[in-house]
Amino acid sequence: MTTAVPDATIDGIDTRCHGSTVRRYRCFVARRTGPDGAVPGRPAVTSRAELERICLEMFAAQGFDATSVDEIAAAAGIGRRTFFRYFASKNDAVWGDFDGRLEAFARWFDDCPDALPVVEAIRRGVIAFNSFDGPATVSVRDRMRLILGSPSLQAYSTLRYEAWREVVARFAATRLGATPQDLIPRTLGHLALGAALAAYEQWLVDEHTDLIDLLDAALRLVDLPAVPVGGSRTRAVPARAI
User: Fold this and answer.
1) What is the DSSP letter of 89?
2) H or E segment at 227?
3) DSSP alpha helices (H): ranges in 78-182?
4) Is the backbone peptide bond immediately before 35 cis, with ω within 30 degrees of 0?
5) Domains in the chain, CATH or no CATH each
6) For residue 38, what is the DSSP state?
7) Predicted pLDDT of residue 225
8) Any idea which residues the entry calls the DNA-binding region (predicted)?
9) Contact between residue 115 and residue 123 where contact means Cβ atoms under 8 Å apart
10) Which of 37-51, 87-101, 117-131 shows the lowest mean pLDDT across its residues?
11) Within 13 Å and on the Cβ side, how many CA atoms surround 166?
12) pTM score of the predicted model
């Protein structure tokens, strides 16, 4: 008499070595399985946006740290190498096309009317950067909940925040005849980011609030009087220019 040996793999994951991983994967697949037992996502995903959606769903369902690239690849019907052709890491999957959005952010400032005061331009630019339509708002909420709530993402997020602040600082520096490393442009970048993060934190704890209203209110607190340009300079910038 022989004993049947159960299949040792699920979508290429060895259950003998990754028991806990497979249990989590099974739970996730069960939520994604249709009446006929088919798993949505087969055939393999063919776009970065689709893979990003699957990543966010899995991170929301079982946590960022608890979700492996192997699980994501299995759920998407692709191999690890294909995953890394779309994203350099799991971190990048959370942030999505952030580089492309930063380029659009910089273009917004490039096209900004010269007559618009710097602080007002920054307020409008940040609101434009964070404006999303309909269903996208749900994914933004999930994305920001991960970014702000996952300790393992914080170091990577710091690099992204720095790049975002640099866009604001470059714009302010151009307007004020300074450099992005001078005090006022650097400070405006930090103030804009701090206001935006505070608005997002409030939005995440109170789903009845409107993100744009929160951003507008937070950014209106950034109203500077005449202050010197640069760390050691004493030349004041007229308040109307800021």
Assistant:
1) S
2) strand 227-228
3) 80-86, 90-95, 98-110, 118-129, 135-149, 154-176
4) no
5) 9-93 (1.10.10.60), 97-241 (1.10.357.10)
6) P
7) 55
8) 68-87
9) no
10) 37-51
11) 9
12) 0.74
